[in-house]
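Support reply, case 0932

Customer input (verbatim):
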Amino acid sequence: MTKTAEAFAVLATFFIMLVVGWIVVVPGLRSIFFPEWPDSGSRPLIIFATQGGDRNYDTHVISTVDVHGDLTLIVYLVESAESEPNSYFGVDYELVIASNVALSGLTCNGEAKELEEIDATELSPGPAYAYTVDEVSNLTSATNFSVEESDESDAVSPSVARENGDEVEDNNDEKNAYFYRHTGVFGVWNIEDVFSRRGFLENDHGTVWVEECHIPSSAIWSYTESGVPFFLEPKATLFLPQFNLTSINNTTDHQSDLRVTVNVDRPPNLKIAEAFPHPKPTATGWTHYHTVYWFGKLGEFESFAWTDQPTWMLVDREGEKKEEFFLLLAGVYLGLIFSVMHFALKSMLYLFGRSK
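Our regenerated output:
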């Protein structure tokens, strides 16, 4: 190989190393020294609305996030007080899922058919009001969370608006949310139990005793942006849904309580870095019992319940070891590229001299 060919080979090697560094090394170092959490994402608002019956009942929700990140909801109703065996009564129910982004893959009723999107004007009065309140709630909003506007926002709470004699502004004219609805008739249990799947009782002509719905992982997870080397510490944030309990016609009748439990199966090789609030660890993952708040009292117009909004940040268990190994490789790379740069400069001077 001639000296000219060697000079061109050195310059080509230097150029290739620069490209590799820009694609792999620079993003990796930036993710280590200036980490960015995927802490912005959508959180579904799940509204349970019921109506009817002649006795008070509690709404039980058990949500499970599997290792693939998908969410399964189990919902059933239990009488608040003991009653005579077989004293059946049923209530109408609506399950509304609201989101500030379009969702796909939502299913209920044990069917493969996805829930169809509906317009905001098609919402029943109870779910419509619950969404409108959520929309103006800023820090406690699921569908319109805003930190920047929370300190000086003109939005007021429902109680303040009512005391002032004002109406909560309806912003549903704009396409700032997507709504999906499932309806049916719930049978109410007179015993408290834990159920794991959708079910009917024989000869009840379609009365649902346990409802089951599925929400895909894309609706509740946010991941690090692309560009970070795949072998570095992955980061993901879980935005668990907020749940509301209200009436269909906007005046509660027998919705006495809301109880929501979430079980998250531990994804492979991941651990919780930060959590708000912090969940209870289990053998296979984590459990959280949602805190429930009430606006208004049972039987009042526009009264409803809502839950807290857990946010969990997860990282790779082996992240620190991978970072140390990457920093070692980055050090070797920097040493090599400075050495190659030395020869590249000599090659450029040689080629420049020959051109003279």
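We compared this against your earlier run and they match. Two observations from our side: The longest strand covers residues 178-189. Residues 146-173 have pLDDT under 50 and may be disordered. Please reopen the case if you see a mismatch on your end.
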